[in-house]
Amino acid sequence: MEDPEKGYEFGPPERHFCLKSAVAFGGSSTVYEAEHWNRSTKLNGVAVKVIYPENMASCDAKQELDIWKELPHHPHLLQLIHYEKRILDDPAENTNNTRHYLVMQFSRSGNLLRFVRQEGKKEETMSNKGPQQVMSLTSGTSTRASLSANKSKGISIRAARDIMRQLASAIYCLHKVAHVVHNDLKLENVLGFEPEDDQDGPITWKIADFGLSQKVRTDSYLGANSAPTPCGTVAYVAPELISYMDLEPYLEDSVPSHNRPSLPPDMPVFARDMWALGCILYALLAGQLPFMDGIQSRMIRRISNGDYEMPYRLLSDSERENRQGEPNWNNNDNEPEGSRSEARQVLEHLLDTNPRTRWTIDDLCQSRWLSLY
């Protein structure tokens, strides 16, 4: 069946866009690669998220657009380039006769998940075993796991620090300037952009997808009166949210939904993003997520208990000698113990199961390892 959106052109005369092919599909939208023209000059391609009216009417979709429009310009946050609403010419033949187009930068480098996988393949041959299954709370359906169940090496501490500095800078802008909690930070939602004029230069990483983000109506860390909603992807979800989520299909002793309490108004809403950053850091260093498990109920309990194994890369020399069944990476991983201990401190404070003592974005930026300010 021919895609009716393909080839559609829109935008002001001095800057218009032409939809090419669909590159991603979601329950509420479709993302297209599109051509970008400045009058008669063709510019770099863009991505266009098309949201349909029944979804735009929902609170989440409207909230996403509002956040996109108000988002401060930041080099590590994906920016909204243009927004346009389209009403189809013949509404009689189209019940849903309105389309919403959100134009943003197009990433040809892929996301951080792809980067971690590629870097892992450079170090060792990937296992032939199939990927695990993880559960997306946003859709309620099974999706393929992000990373291999087998331990891959990940990237160096220095390379991980470079990426984390970019992400921390972006989250600082979200939390402290925009007063926005992202709610769905994960490897897939961090997009890479290579320099336009120097293909050998470093990749710039940008946080994307604000579909679950929320505006926090206070500058307080506790987020009073923000009415936060538990959401996100289970493998990255903070432990303090577990009790408030619909996990009945995966936990035999889960509290029934009609008896489940509401999130308290003083829940530290920004803390969930910090936990997710900890999961991302772990994946960068270990090549896998910290709580992944083939059995869903066991993974959820591991998250609740903060039960993870410290990445081999962060172990001291003496701990490495005692770790059984791990490859010996000392010969090609020459990070000094001081650097390992600084990165380890960051990881432990981000994966603190207590949201009130978990590091804030200020703590992370001021850490000795990142030293952003």
From TrEMBL:
<feature type="region of interest" description="Disordered">
    <location>
        <begin position="319"/>
        <end position="341"/>
    </location>
</feature>
<dbReference type="GO" id="GO:0004674">
    <property type="term" value="F:protein serine/threonine kinase activity"/>
</dbReference>
<dbReference type="Pfam" id="PF00069">
    <property type="entry name" value="Pkinase"/>
</dbReference>
<keyword id="KW-0808">Transferase</keyword>
<dbReference type="GO" id="GO:0010506">
    <property type="term" value="P:regulation of autophagy"/>
</dbReference>
<keyword id="KW-0418">Kinase</keyword>
<dbReference type="GO" id="GO:0005737">
    <property type="term" value="C:cytoplasm"/>
</dbReference>
<feature type="compositionally biased region" description="Polar residues">
    <location>
        <begin position="127"/>
        <end position="143"/>
    </location>
</feature>
<feature type="region of interest" description="Disordered">
    <location>
        <begin position="121"/>
        <end position="143"/>
    </location>
</feature>
<protein>
    <submittedName>
        <fullName>Serine threonine-protein kinase</fullName>
    </submittedName>
</protein>
<dbReference type="GO" id="GO:0005524">
    <property type="term" value="F:ATP binding"/>
</dbReference>
<dbReference type="InterPro" id="IPR000719">
    <property type="entry name" value="Prot_kinase_dom"/>
</dbReference>
<dbReference type="InterPro" id="IPR011009">
    <property type="entry name" value="Kinase-like_dom_sf"/>
</dbReference>
<dbReference type="InterPro" id="IPR045269">
    <property type="entry name" value="Atg1-like"/>
</dbReference>
<feature type="domain" description="Protein kinase">
    <location>
        <begin position="17"/>
        <end position="370"/>
    </location>
</feature>
